[in-house]
Amino acid sequence: MEIAEKTLKEWKTECLFAETFGFSILLRICKSIAKEVFRQKREFLFAFLVIKSIDYFYLFCYTFGKYKKRMAAISFLICCFLVRLFRCTRMGGKVMNLNQLYYFKTLAELEHYTKAAEKLNISQPTLSHSISSMEKELGANLFEKQGRNVVLTKYGRIYIFYVENALTQLELGKNQIERLVSEGGGHVGLAYMTSVGTNFVPGLIAGFLDDPQNKNISFSCYEGNTKTLLYNLKREKYDLIFCSMVEAESDVEFIPVYEQSLVVIVPEGHPLESKKKVTIQDICPYPLVSYTKESGMRRIIDDMFTKAQIMPNILCQFEDVNSMAGLVAANQGIAIVTDNPALENYHVTKLELDTPYSRRMVYLAYVLNRYLPPAVEKFKDYTIQRTKEKR
What is the rounded CA–CA span in Å between residue 91 and residue 137? Predict the structure, then answer.
C-alpha cells in the first residue's frame, strides 16, 4: 500500500511537470533519463528501446504540430513508467523478501540444502537461487561447503544474528496483532520463577479459567530467574511475570502478591536433622548449595550472611530449586530454599529457618505505560484481587 501511494504521488508530479514544460525540453529529459539508465546499469537493449521510442515520438510530434504538448507529456510519462518498471524488474529482484530470510535461517540451522528445502516445502533449486540472490545483494558469501553440508561463513554468522532478531520482532508483532483483534478471548504470555510454578501459578490460572467468561483465553508459560524474566518482559516476550523485587527497574511496576517461607534442607541422616529450627550460625560450618547470582533469592541469602557477618561456603550454584534439592539429597551440602511441595519428592529434611528474614515476597511485574491487551489486563486484575483476599 505504501509503495502504491508513493508511486501515485510520483505519477501526479510527472503529469504536472509534463503539462508545464515545453516540448523539446521534455524530450531531452526523457532521453537523458534513458541514457542514465544505460550508464548506471549497462542495460544496453533496454536503454536503446527507450531512446528509440522517444525518437519516434519526437518525429511524430513535429509531423502533427497541434499534438505537440500532449505528445510531449505522453513521451515523458512513458519514459518515467519504463524507468520505474526497470527499477522494479532489474533492481527489485535484488531486494530480499521475508521468505528469503526464513530460507536463510532454516539453511543455517540444518546446514544441508536438501533437508532445508524439504522442511520449507520448496524445491532445492528454488532454495539455491534464493540464497544466491541474497549473497549477490550483500556482496558476500554466506555459506561455504563442508563435505556434503554447508556451514555459515564469517559473514553468514554476522548476518544470522540480525536475521533472527528481525524474524523475532516480526513474530512478536504478529502475536501482538492476534491478541488485539481476538474477540471474546485473547492470550496471556506469563513467566515466573520456578519456586512459584508448582502450586501458586497453576492455582491462579485454574481459578481464572473457572470463570466461563475466560474460557477462550489461552496462556503461554515460561520459567526463569528474575534477571532473565525482567529482560524478556521489557523486550515484550512476556506480558506479565512473577519475580523478586529489583529496585533499579524504574520502568517496571512491582505489585506484592505472594509471600514464601524460606527453609533449610539437609540430607537424611544429617547432624542438623534432629533440630526443628536452625540459625545462620548453625548452618555456616556446612557446604552450601545456593542459587546463581542472577536469582533474586541469591540476594536475599547473601544479605542474611552479611547481616550475620559470616562468609558462606558455597559449593555449587543452580538456577532452580529442583537441582539444588537433588544435590542436597546426594549428601553434597545443605541449602536455603523457598518452601515448595516439590521438595517432598527428594530424600531431604526441611528445617525452619530461625531468622527475621526467613520470608520472601513474590511480585507481579509488568512494564509501566505499555498497552496490555484485554485478556492480560483481566488476568492481572484477577491476580491482584485474589491475592489481596488471601493475605
Answer: 10
